[in-house]
Amino acid sequence: MKIDRLFGITVYLLNNEVVTARQLVQKFEVSVRTIQRDMETLCKAQIPIMSVAGVSGGYSIIPDYKIKNQYTSKEDYRYILMALKGLNSSYSNKNLENTLNKYMSLIKNEDERVFLDYSVSKEDGKVQTNRELLEEIISENKVASFNYRDAEQKQSSKIVQPLAVYYKWYAWYMLGYDINKNDYRIYKIARMSELKLSDRVCFKQHDDIENIIKNQEQEYSNTCETIEVWCRKDCKEILQEYFPNEVMNKDKEGNYMLYLHVPARERLWQALLLSLGDGVKIIKPLLYKEKLIETAKKFLSNYDIQ
Fold first, then answer.
1. CA separation (Å) from 136 to 90, 164, 183?
2. What is the pLDDT of residue 138?
3. What average pLDDT score do residues 154-161 get?
4. What is the CATH number of domain 144-218?
5. What is the share, in percent, of the chain residues with pLDDT greater than 90?
6. For residues 261 and 203, is the Cβ–Cβ distance under 8 A?
């Protein structure tokens, strides 16, 4: 039917920059003359078809129209609005607020039943301030200097070209190129201080940023270690909540043996195990078992316990 073909041509043009008459003829199995008549019909329907001349020419839809008139349902707008509200709860940005207001004007939200609140990801004001400054430095393709405290509390000065900021593992991170080490590094923004624009320059050409992040995270994952942990059956669900993808084997008494793949230098997983008291026990490696015992003794030393 003609109406189906007209709809198909419109969608095809929306999804492609420039389409030749020959491509449309082959796609919809009609003559060139039919395609020409269809273009006239679409123009009369106020769809702004543009004819592009030259060897690479053909038919196109004006770019601004593509943004304003995509075939988007009410449900599509609801999902977009939900995602924007969730992002706005965690990411302070004036342009984002303006975008959110535009979409809120397109659809009433009285039927909302799903809410995304990522406000925990804002962390504190210092993190937000540093993140915003890093975004400015990234947009200007410049270099930053800052002091950094690593997971072992060691302080060092950094000269880095920031390349991207992203949120993961309940914290904001920055991917940067360390000029002094000539290598890429991932930095936790909460551990930065004295962040400022540097007068240093960096002329290095970088590959795809997303791939660099994936490679860096893979290198970090390779430094993680497997910890064998005995878990009493009443503590199983808590550990499953925090380690949902780890191997868990049930023993004859109904308790469990877990094999946790954890970052050796980070403290959160150690704090979680300590919080479960006698419900868990590290079996091996012996080093981490002794380390947890030492931490527990230091904690108890703060209290008058006989």
1. 18, 11, 22
2. 94
3. 95
4. 2.30.30
5. 31
6. no
